[in-house]
Amino acid sequence: MPMGGFAAAAPAAAPAPVEEEEAAPAAQEKTLFTLTLKSFEASAKPKIIKEIKSMLGLSLVDSKKFVESAPKQMKEGIPKDESEKIISTMKALGGVVVME
Predict the structure, then answer these.
(1) CB–CB of 44/97 below 8 Å?
(2) Beta bridge partners of residue 35, listed in sequence order
């Protein structure tokens, strides 16, 4: 019977490395990001409003309010490649978007 006690103790030590392995993927690269409109050039405001309107599907009035209330979260749970496209588009128009 004492051997059974030792055998039970050995598997209890095995789950500890598994927990460490599960913690490692969390430290790896994020796959989904949140985009936040931080600021924009005053001269680019109409272009930014039009882009926000088409991107988020808001009305013109809501898009204007959205842009004027920057910094404001634009989208959440966006893959990295799509996030980079949105950031480059907004940067070209004169907006500053941050990927978090």
Answers:
(1) no
(2) 75, 99
What is the chain's length?
100
Q: Is the pTM of this model over 0.70?
A: no
SS3 content of the chain, % helix, strand, coil (to 5): 65, 20, 15
Tokens of residue 35, six digits:
């985009």
- Nearest-CA neighbor of 34 among 71, 75, 69? 75
- Predicted confidence band at 30 (pLDDT cuts at 50, 70, 90)? confident
User: Strand, helix or coil at 72?
Assistant: strand
Tokens representing 64 are 């204007």
Contact 46, 93 (CB under 8 A): no
